[in-house]
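Before the break, one more example. Copy the sequence into your notebook; we will annotate it together after we see the structure.
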Amino acid sequence: MTPLLNILTGINRTSEPSSGSMLLAGDLYRAMSGTHTTFLGREPVDQGWSGAFDRLITLSTTKRPQGPGFDSYVDELTREVGALIEKIRPHAIHAQYLGFALSLAFTRSAGSIPIISVAHGPDVMAAEHDEQERDTLHEVAAASTAIVAPTAALADRIDRLTGRRFTDRLTVIPWGIRLSDARVRDRPSPGPGPLSLVHAGRLDDNKSTITAVEALALSGQPHHLTVLGSGTLREHLEQRAIELGLRDRVHFDQFLPRAELWRRLPNFDAFVFTTKDLEAFGLVLIEAQAHGLPVAYADLPGAREILGNTGVPYAPSDPSSLAAVLDEMGRDIQWRTALSAAALDNARRYDITTAGRRMCELTLRVTSGRGGAHRRHA
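Here is what the structure looks like once it is written out:
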């Protein structure tokens, strides 16, 4: 019998499906056959989600991710991680978020164990704006045998950020979802007229939900928008909707567990994606498409790479551009129907089993000493 590939990974957050990266991790390692994965996380632990891993260990080092105590925090975390590595003896380490504290601790305690670092987006954004984060990212990248990014656009951004010193280590492995769990709505699409729109994600500045809210005020049809998510800008967005006279056309709901989100998605006519700067991949785009929803998306390199002509681009942070797209989508039922069919076809490219297989193949290459080739799709 072939021995299992022993992988150590982790994300320095509470061990629950509370973000895209945690959802991805749960799906990805569940999809990686022939492996034994130990995950390092934080309490509390969601038992259903943690079932994706063969073992979950909660970190005890008090988290201090920023400020003058960062160096001592990393030293303490490195000692804890180093002791765990001695016990686990993994064949490979997957360092999630190249540039954050846990990846730095992996880097400093791995010894001869090969590291595959995995970019998620916020780590790259942080490094672009903060010198300490940038130094951390450089150290992790330098120690990595391979660096995984979910899109060529993000890989290029990392390449530029690191002075193109690690181009030969960069590998693109697109992320995915559990397509078998998605269900397309069984009700017919409505005729021409106002749309029932949905937006899902964190309510922060980069997600730019305000663009969708303000687009409704500029649209020629009385579209309705449901915003699913939580974040620091929730109150501001609610107030802005009232100021624009949209109290009855914009509805806010809390962050939903994935099962509930997927249950509700088929009830809408289209999905609105409003991120204005960097989105590593945008799993929610594929989630929406897998449920047959046409997608209007901010025309960013990563989103364009994932969706292409299966979605409808508009100028990022431009409510008038988005309003024009939504109005046309509302008027042209044949176009909207074609977009729905294209969405389903595109979503089929992003099954998590494919991402799991590619990640496993890369890990086997790294552990067998065959490392990386110049920028490639694994």
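The first helix runs from residue 20 to 30. The first strand starts at residue 5 and ends at 15. Try to locate both features in your own notes.
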